Amino acid sequence: MSDLEKPRSFWLVVWDWITTIPTLISFGVVFVVADLALRVSRPFGEHAVEVAAGVMQRVLIWAFLPSGVRLKIERDPKVRKDRPYILVSNHQSFFDVPIIGGILYSQFPKYIAKKELSKWIPFVSYNLRRGGNAIIDRAAGRDAVRVIREFGKRCQERGVSAVIFPEGSRSRDGHLKEFKPVGAAQLMKAAPDLDIVPTAIDGSWRLLTNKMFPIPFGTVVRISFGRPILREAGQKAEDVVLEVREIIADKLDSWRYEPAT
């Protein structure tokens, strides 16, 4: 039986609840403060909003410290901090966004998100609407493609990174789902100068196994920014999307089957 399948002991569950309380308080406070920070920074321009969002995403990661959440980061040496990329990533929870945004602070990563997330969620909704991200209606196919292409062009022109989760929705059990290549391919075509960084995330789904009531203490979340795939003439974007999925799948397998230490 794997560690994921083993039931947690009674006392460990009790500790989960004890540590979840301060975590949720910290989480709520950060969300409110972050929302206010973005609104205050808005009159100073888009870059000011980006800086505020980057800072608050990093703080949001720290909000999980009372629950013993640990973040393990792998970054290929070829991934530079001073240049933008298209990050193609698997998706396990809402926590993936502040992880990427907090780590890649200097690249001000932008996201493609469904329109439902652009309303009524403190910090998240305001940042999606005002932070240079792309909001799409997945039911409107052609219009969604147009928004993605405009988003890609804008990211390339401004020199900021673009993030896309081709699974379409988060994996609730950590298993990698099939990629829907259309959106990622259109993004690549719209931003031909941005190299592709395969991004693998694992463990963030565990934070939501109980809908955060409680948060399992000591959860380890791992993220890998793989070697960039350089853009080449004649390169088929759809083939690159499939290649990225294979890279992510291999990384997830290597993490889950590596010897215990």
What is the topology?
Layout: H1 10-41, H2 46-62, E1 70-75, E2 86-89, H3 96-103, E3 110-114, H4 124-130, E4 134-136, H5 141-158, E5 162-164, H6 181-190, E6 196-202, E7 220-225, H7 237-256
Helix pairs in contact: 1-2, 2-3, 5-6, 6-7
The N- and C-terminal alpha carbons lie at a distance of 17 Å
Structural class: alpha/beta
Shape: globular
Mean pLDDT: 92
Largest sheet strand order: 1-7-6-2-5-3-4
The tally of structural domains comes to: 1
Number of helices: 7
The biggest sheet, with number of strands, parallel, antiparallel or mixed sense and barrel status, is: 7 strands, mixed
The counted number of beta strands is: 7
Radius of gyration based on Cα positions: 18 Å
CATH topology: Glycerol-3-phosphate (1)-acyltransferase
| CATH architecture label name | 3-Layer(aba) Sandwich
Q: Which spans have pLDDT < 50 for at least 5 consecutive residues? A: none
| Helix and strand sequence | HHEEHEHEHEHEEH
CATH class: Alpha Beta
What percentage of the residues does DSSP assign to strands (E)?
5-15%
Instruction: Tell me roughly what share of residues is in helical segments.
Output: 40-55%
